[in-house]
Amino acid sequence: MLLIPCPWCGPRDEAEFRYGGQAHVAYPEDPAALSDEEWARYLFFRDNPKGRFAERWNHTAGCRRWFNVVRDTATNEWVSA
Amino acid sequence: MAERLSPLARFEPVSTDDLRIAEIPFLTQVNLRVDPKSRAAADIGLALGAPLPTEPNTYASADSDVFWLGPDEWLIVGAGARADLEPRLRAAATGAVEAGRVHVGITDVSAQRTALVVGGPKARDLLAHGCALDLHPRTFGPGRCAQTMLARAQVLLAAREGGEFRVFVRSSFAGYLAAWLLDAAVEYLP
To answer: Is the ipTM of this complex over 0.90?
Structure first.
């Protein structure tokens, strides 16, 4: 189980969290102007790097706040909180 | 009038030299959302007799216990059925709310959770059976609280003086958690 560093509560078990996917995915400025393919790309396409990956987590069983962390997907090390 | 039943009305309290488990029913609980730097937060702190704790996972005790739930969220627990707690907080916040653009949320959530006391020399060992947090007094002594999982149920855990714990658990989970506590306590009971 991952030990996830919540910026408020400190390190807690993964079971207390929900995963929020890739961080910093910006909402399109003018969604109506996008083609179906561009919209699908925004909705469903995410990076899948081997290495550092910025992702969002929600501490659902604790302070219930969203936060961003950078995790190394190869080693599961937390690079920054 | 219908009789009011607590979620653990049928729970037989445990009381031995090693362990005490009992429900404290019908505590008045109020959820508070406010910017901790605002005047409203200061006014509410004054009304409660203690400033709102801003250090994560701590609580303050004055005439009520004020538990830190999040950076802008607290749970205020009064002893027994204190119908005046919510109106008092509202009155304290009114001045700041009327004076400026500050938003305050004050909600009575008394029925949301019930409280269990787990006390005695074996209390820490018992809770450690189902809780991943380090409950040693060095890191979780009196004045500390935490929202976490106890036996996969969401709880608010608070350490009190004398090695005693308060476990606030959602009413619908209370029966399960009480049964789990009794089961986990088998080795400590005669």
So the answer is: no
